[in-house]
Design a protein that fits this description.
The protein is mainly alpha-helical. The chain is about 80% helix and about 0% strand. The chain is built from 20 helices and no strands. The model has no long low-confidence stretch (mean pLDDT about 85).
Length: about 450
């Protein structure tokens, strides 16, 4: 049962403990944004092979999202988060010791597995401990805290890698991560005080498959998937891997300047996340129109960046990156939509389905950029056209499911059912019968 009033201090402390796991996960996830060039030197690989690090890590992350949602709904977020911290720390310890390309890939795969267990678990705790109308805002705050990990993985990590070096840096952060499993196991609780934990029934594969199928067939989940797919992959691709090489090798900037520019993504998301969360919490009908506005602006930004004659000035890069940062906060809208249209017992699974979207787009885009860079001799203007293509594809699919989801809401209202968001019918809306036939 989700609390209806104000959440107690205990719930906030549980969230704070859990969200720190997500902060650590984002740090580990984005560390290759500045460590990528050093990884290329350490392992002796080129652009395409370097891209495989991110493709593998994010691919494992994406593949694990639906299983993670099922695991969270079945075993509870406390157990899953505890396992996540141990796996994350182990992966970073292995990366610190890795001296071959193959072992480095294994380490990043382990990191991707641990990372995959974090975000869905934190949002499941939010759904259980806080009122439903606060979900979007808390999801934004969760993302905002995660960006602190991203911030630590820019200039501070660059200085550590240039100072103590690769092995000492990654062994130290890996050890800290492993030790954090103790407070997670002791402090996190799956339900609010006074609410008994749900009885854990034996796992039945048929029932798990049914949960996933129901989540996927829900139009709100499908809409959330495509919102997440189209909004968060572009800033992800830049901060996870290709931002630093693009700025240093493509635009001729010093490494320190490029690293500082990547912090724009952090500060922009930290400022935009809570603001956007507050807006959509008060006016949920604005959620998808805001996404449409962001995608339209992002298309213009990429047209400017890729069409600029010569090196793009820093004075243009900063506002361009600042706008693209809004993709992260906008992606949280996908989770809020899925939360509204799924029962609490299925929220973890639905959240996992939605989270696949952005990371699937990130994986495909990062891989294709690496391949095109290799094929074109390092031409970033051509390689980054992949971002535009994926953006257009995701936006088109999102618009299709926006119409279908709206039609299902109108059909529910016609049957006299209560709907989570009141929306106004427009001439371009589908008829309810069309949506039911298309589902």
């Amino acid at each position: 049962m989700t609390p209806a009033g104000r959440a107690p201090v205990r719930s906030w402390l549980i969230w704070l403990t859990a969200v720190t796991v997500y902060l650590l996960a984002v740090f580990h996830r984005t560390s290759f944004g500045v460590a990528g060039l050093k990884a290329a030197e350490r392992f002796g690989v080129g652009s395409a092979a370097l891209g495989i690090f991110t493709v593998l890590q994010v691919g494992v992350y994406a593949a694990m999202q639906i299983p993670t949602g099922v695991l969270v709904d079945r075993y509870g977020p406390r157990r899953v988060l505890t396992a996540a911290v141990l796996i994350l720390g182990s992966g970073q310890l292995l990366l610190g010791l890795a001296d071959t390309y193959a072992l480095g890939l294994v380490a990043r795969g382990v990191l991707g597995f641990g990372d995959a267990l974090t975000f869905v678990s934190v949002l499941r705790l939010v759904a259980a401990h806080f009122p439903a109308h606060r979900y979007a805002l808390l999801a934004s705050f969760t993302s905002c805290v995660g960006y602190l990990g991203n911030l630590a993985a820019t200039v501070p990590l660059t200085l550590l890698l240039d100072g103590p070096g690769w092995t000492v840096t990654f062994l130290a952060v890996g050890a800290v991560t492993v030790l954090y499993s103790v407070p997670v196991a002791l402090r996190v609780r799956d339900t609010p005080e006074g609410v008994p934990e749900r009885k854990r029934e034996p796992v039945r594969p048929a029932e798990l498959a049914r949960q996933v199928k129901l989540a996927w067939r829900t139009p709100g989940t499908r809409l959330g998937f495509w919102v997440h797919f189209s909004t968060m992959f572009a800033p992800n691709v830049l901060t996870l891997l290709w931002g630093m090489p693009f700025l240093v090798e493509g635009e001729g900037l010093p490494a320190a300047t490029a690293s500082a520019l990547l912090t724009v993504f952090v500060f922009g998301s930290m400022a935009g996340g809570p603001l956007l969360g507050a807006v959509i919490g008060r006016s949920p009908a604005l959620r998808v129109p805001l996404v449409v506005g962001y995608l339209s602006g992002a298309a213009i930004v990429w047209a400017v960046l890729l069409g600029w004659n010569g090196h793009v000035p820093v004075g243009v890069l900063v506002p361009a990156f600042a706008f693209l940062t809004l993709g992260g906060p906008a992606s949280m809208i996908g989770f809020a939509i899925a939360r509204d249209y799924n029962p609490l017992s299925r929220v973890g699974t639905a959240t996992g389905v939605v989270n696949v979207g952005g990371f699937l787009a990130t994986t495909l885009t990062a891989l294709l950029i690496g391949i095109l860079l290799q094929a074109t001799g390092g031409n970033f203007r051509i390689a980054l056209l992949v971002v535009v293509a994926v953006l257009a594809f995701g936006a088109a699919k999102m618009l299709v499911w926006w119409r279908r989801a709206r039609a299902h809401v109108f059909a529910a209202e016609a049957r006299g059912e209560e709907v989570p968001v009141q929306i106004r019918r427009h001439r371009w809306d589908r008829e309810p019968e069309e949506a039911v036939a298309a589902a």
